[in-house]
Amino acid sequence: MHDRFDLSGRTALVTGGTRGLGNAMARGLAEAGADVVITGRKQEGCDAAAAELAELTGRNVVGIACHMGEWAEIDTLLACANEAVGGLDILVNNAGINPVFMPIADITESYLDKLLAVNFKGPVRLAQLVGAQMIERGGGSIINIVTIGAYNGGPGVGPYSASKAALLNMTRVMAWEWAQHKVRVNAVAPGPFDTDMMRGAEAAIPGFNEGAAAATLQKRVADPDEIIGMIVYLASDASTFVTGGDFKVAGGMLT
Ligand SMILES: NC(=O)c1ccc[n+]([C@@H]2O[C@H](COP(=O)([O-])OP(=O)(O)OC[C@H]3O[C@@H](n4cnc5c(N)ncnc54)[C@H](OP(=O)(O)O)[C@@H]3O)[C@@H](O)[C@H]2O)c1
Which residue, 113, 102, 19, is CA-closest to 70? Predict the structure, then answer.
């Protein structure tokens, strides 16, 4: 039977693939047959994670350091990714940050600039470059990782949720502009997953995880592997008529 989820012969770039959700996504894409480039801020971390993923999956997995907040580095990233695996079929804009909880009253210009640079401007620049390449190559799939908070911000997470809301909005525009070129663009909005980001939130606000779990219908925080199905679906031919969408992977958490 034809396997619509098979990614053999495809290439993918997952930003922030050194740990957390991005690492699980990269593993899932490689297990489905893709060769994968992952990124992080430090080359050693990228190399270590890539070697581990290659060992686990038997695919070509390459790590390339790139700070997503540095617009100029993103051109270099794409050039290196092309060299490592050839042109890209799949882009997952996963890298994102929420370093601290910051009430509106405390927001500084530099903090807002930093959040927008990493969570919004970088992903848009990368999608712009990869999208152009996908158009030339005859199509592709771009997946922008946002958050349930992109639909409704909450106290202390204004800059984070607003940066993701901007990316969610831009996802729809990308899908609209590029549909004619067979480039599909979708957003995935995770609920609470057990990663360093959630552990940081728990350290800053004891009880945060319990509260996040309680807000889901399943009353739990998810394992990073539970994001994989949605990513492979959106990356693959199983979703050829799916574009401009946003998909919650959040245990029924309401927005
Ligand atoms: N975990 C959740 O519950 C949750 C919920 C909703 C949305 N999300 C979203 O899901 C995505 C992944 O989250 P996560 O929980 O897996 O986060 P995480 O555990 O903190 O991992 C973040 C990843 O992004 C990389 N990264 C951080 N800053 C970067 C930068 N400036 N440039 C390039 N790479 C950078 C990190 O790599 P290095 O440290 O090696 O640089 C790491 O691979 C994020 O966009 C986040 O907003 C997560």
Answer: 113
Token reading at 216: 């889901």
Is 160 part of the annotated catalytic residue set?
A: yes
At 51, which CATH number?
Answer: 3.40.50.720
Ligand 1 midpoint to CA 18 (Å):
9
Q: Specify if 3 maps to a domain.
A: no
Q: Is residue 220 part of a domain?
A: yes
114 lines ligand 1 (CB under 6 A): no
**How many helices and strands (H and E) does the chain possess?**
9, 7
Predicted confidence (pLDDT) per residue in 195-210, tens digit? 999 999 999 999 999 9
Write phi, then psi, for 141 (nearest 5 degrees).
-130, 125
Question: What are the pLDDT digits (tens) for 100-129?
Answer: 999 999 999 999 999 999 999 999 999 999
Q: Using alpha carbons, select from 255, 199, 248 the residue that is nearest to residue 226.
A: 248
